[in-house]
Structure formats: structure tokens, C-alpha cells
Write a structure and sequence with these properties.
It is built from one helix and 27 strands. By secondary structure, the protein is mostly beta strands. It has one domain: TolB, C-terminal domain (Neuraminidase, 6 Propeller). The radius of gyration is 21 Å and the shape is globular.
Length: about 300
């Protein structure tokens, strides 16, 4: 009798264990847009707006989830490639690209939500990275070979020795970390090319994908902690517990399949979120409250899935 009770207890624990680490989709909506193809959605810091761009990263569009209103902010070329919201969510910083004599020149601009005009902070740089926002609310970017910090209050640009916090990027097959002004070069997998690199929300871990290979999670020293087999375009959840990604396939020319998955770091468990043969979901991102996932499809629709996450 005692062994039977023990078996039932273990079975019950097993059932609850299977129910844990779930991501359940409770609804999906398509953002109503103009007659064009859109991509690369991201949430505002408060999760109440979605920013996205047209295919080719031309221009920026903003959709208000509460008001259900769509606004075109601008049509600058290159503006949709990794723009960032300021910490208060009131402004957007983005890059503007132009070509002269077959050479690309980039400028950095800032635009307040609700205004049609952008103000240019930096102009006509040959090599300018997309901007990133540090936790001290300064803006950091790479201008030619130099890492620079822009202070919004003083409107002054300084060099990388003033970086307070941590900033990371990929350069020449190495991961570069600048922490409190100190530069460090890491090569977790020597002689490999890394893409989709990002730091965890608490800046203690890193995720990146090897070109043509797997996705890796490491500590800040580059020691490998987890290997996720095929996990393209990985994105940290706001609490750092999950990594969101896509599993896509192609025939060498076009995408033939793509689904969204998530990986629970502590439990080493993958969860499939979408399963649609006729829809190719790509480049998913979390909402700040972790209750929604936005992504675009290969035919240019912006979609939002409401989710319930069980850790």
C-alpha cells in the first residue's frame, strides 16, 4: 500500500513537472498596416507600442496597442535597422543611411514620438553601428574604429573610456566587451563567425549564434554554459529565464519554413510556440511584461501573440 501511495505521489509530481515551463498562446492578432511589407517589430519600454519598419529597413512605423492607431514616423533609409527607444519611451534613436559615389554614409538621428521631424546628432560617418542604450541611460555606438558614448543631457559625445556599465559587440571573429572603460576580447569558439550576439538583462551572460551552426550561452568570461542546437535570432526574455528564437529552413533562395520556439535555461527545455505550415513566423521579440511576443512573417505581416508563461 505504501509503495502504491509513493508511486501515485511520484506520478503526480511528474504530471506537475510536465505542466511547468510552458508557454501557452492565448490569442494572436495581425497589426493592420498599409499596403506594404513590414518587418523587425519591437516593443516600447512600457509595452504599449510596437515599432517596426518596411522590408529593406526603410522608415519607422509605430502602432499604439491601446488606441489601435498606426503612425508613420519617417521614411528614412536604414532607420529600421536596430533602432532604440530612450528609457522613458518618448523618443527613438536610429541610423540614417545614404549612398554617394557608391559609398555608404550614416548619420544618427533622434525623433520624439508624436513629431514628424527628426534631429540629427551625428552626420555622415563612413562606418556607424546601430545605437544601444546603457543602463545609465547613455547612448553607445561605434563610429569608425572608436566606441563612443553620447550623453543626452549635455548633448556631448565622448570616447569609450567613459563607458559606465557594459557594452558588447562582435568584431573580426571576436566578441568585444567594454566594461567601465576596459576593453576585453573573447573567442569562445576560436576562428568562428558570430552573429545575433546580445548580453543577458542582468549582464552576467551572453548569447550568440555561430554562422551555419548552433546557438551558445556563455558566462561573461566566455565559458560555454548551454548549447541550443538550431536557434536563430535568439532573444532574451526580460527576466533572463528564457531565450526566444526561430527555427527556419530555406532552399537556398527563399524561406520554406519557420517556427518560433523558446528555451528555458534552468530546465534545459525547448517549447514550440507556433506550428503553422502556411505561415512562416520570423524574428520574435518579447514584450517587457513577458505576456506578448511580436514577430513578422515572410510575407510582411506584423503579428502579436498573447502568451501565458509558466516557469
Amino acid at each position: 500500500m505504501r509503495s502504491k501511495i509513493l508511486f501515485l505521489c511520484l506520478l503526480t509530481l511528474g504530471i506537475f513537472g510536465l505542466q511547468a515551463q510552458q508557454i501557452n498562446v492565448t490569442g494572436t492578432v495581425i497589426i493592420p498596416t498599409e499596403e506594404s511589407r513590414y518587418m523587425a517589430p519591437q516593443f516600447s519600454p512600457d509595452g504599449e507600442k510596437i515599432l517596426f519598419t518596411e522590408f529593406g529597413y526603410k522608415g519607422l512605423w509605430l502602432y499604439d496597442l491601446k488606441e489601435k492607431s498606426l503612425t508613420q514616423l519617417n521614411d528614412y533609409p536604414g532607420a529600421g535597422y536596430e533602432p532604440v527607444f530612450t528609457a522613458d519611451g518618448e523618443r527613438i534613436v536610429f541610423r540614417v543611411d545614404e549612398y554617394r559615389d557608391n559609398r555608404k554614409y550614416s548619420s544618427l538621428a533622434i525623433q520624439a514620438i508624436g513629431e514628424k521631424k527628426a534631429n540629427f546628432m551625428i552626420r555622415n560617418v563612413r562606418r556607424l553601428s546601430p545605437p544601444a542604450l546603457l543602463k545609465n541611460r547613455s547612448l553607445v555606438y561605434r563610429k569608425n574604429s572608436e566606441v563612443c558614448v553620447y550623453n543626452f543631457e549635455s548633448k556631448m559625445e565622448t570616447q569609450s573610456v567613459t563607458v559606465q556599465g557594459i557594452y558588447g559587440y562582435v568584431e573580426n571573429q571576436k566578441i568585444i566587451l567594454i566594461q567601465n572603460g576596459t576593453r576585453q576580447e573573447l573567442a569562445p569558439l576560436p576562428s568562428r563567425n558570430y552573429i545575433w550576439f546580445s548580453l543577458s538583462p542582468d549582464n552576467t551572460k551572453m548569447v550568440f549564434t555561430v554562422v551555419g551552426g548552433d546557438t551558445y550561452v556563455t558566462d561573461i568570461a566566455g565559458n560555454i554554459l548551454k548549447v541550443i542546437e538550431k536557434a536563430n535570432a535568439p532573444q532574451w526574455s526580460p527576466d533572463g529565464k528564457w531565450i526566444l528564437f526561430m527555427v527556419d529552413e530555406d532552399d537556398g533562395h527563399v524561406i520554406t519554413a519557420s517556427e518560433i520556439w523558446a528555451y528555458h535555461l534552468e530546465k534545459n527545455r525547448k517549447i514550440q510556440i507556433t506550428a503553422t505550415e502556411d505561415i512562416h513566423e520570423m524574428y520574435p521579440v518579447w514584450s517587457p511584461r513577458r505576456d506578448q511576443i511580436a514577430y513578422h512573417t515572410d510575407d510582411g505581416k506584423i503579428m502579436i501573440a498573447s502568451v501565458r508563461v509558466e516557469d
